[in-house]
Amino acid sequence: METLDQYLLYHIVQLLDIDDQMTLKQVSRLWYHLIDEPFLTTNKGHLLTLKQILSTKLYQILKYGAYNNSYHLVNYALHHGEDNFERGLYGACRGGHLGLINYMIDQGVHDLNVGLYGVCRNGNPDLVKFMIDKGADDWNLGLYGACRGNHLNLVQMMIDKGSADWNVGLYGACYGGYLVLTRLMIQLGADDFNRGLYSSCHGGHVILAQLMIEHGASDWNRGLYGACRGGHLGLAHMMIENGATDYDLGLYGACRGGHQDLAQLMIDQGTSEYERGLHGAQFGGHEDLMQFISDKIRNS
Fold it and tell me: pTM of this prediction?
């Protein structure tokens, strides 16, 4: 049975506006009524319950806590030994929280460019300038973040600073689904259309996948992996119809992304590399997929 840590307790009190005079025992009673309720938003927009928070990895709690501007969840992770401060910095930058950005830097962050990527995705130019002043200088990573977030002004800023890796920008624009930025990167010189196809399929963007094909992309297996990992059934079928045959890779992608329908499609297409699928499910932390594949292994 899960128990409440003081940092998680403080976050519950803060988030739910509970009377701060309540005793730990009183709030703990509420815990058992709240454990399956949506409680926290991830940087990808997914909702986590309290039960999921406590069962996830500490670095994810650190990242999600920072993204949600919760010092309590950040301290929960730090108190329990998490020292991947870059994860926390990214979450704070992605969420646009200056206080927590400074807090994570003070913990001993080594790679400030992770923060540059986060703030470029967030789109706040003041925070971008702040990270640059702190020493971040990976303009190509910043370009990727700006393209992922569809922030043309920051794209221009990164170019002005010296970014010239147009393929990195292409990956970001395709993953994010932004046609104007995708065309801009191609005009500037991007030509890795197979990686663009993967990014488009991973992000679930049919129009951009078709654009990459028009420009010569033909790595259907890579596109299939992207579609399966992103959970996009229509794009997976599209890649198969075009000639994708590496269903083992597709199964790994589906299981890593947590998409049982895509995993079943790969099995229906003929893959029997269940161990590879199990590895993907374990890597992604998807217990339901682990059970699904384990059942397949037992029955094979």
Answer: 0.84
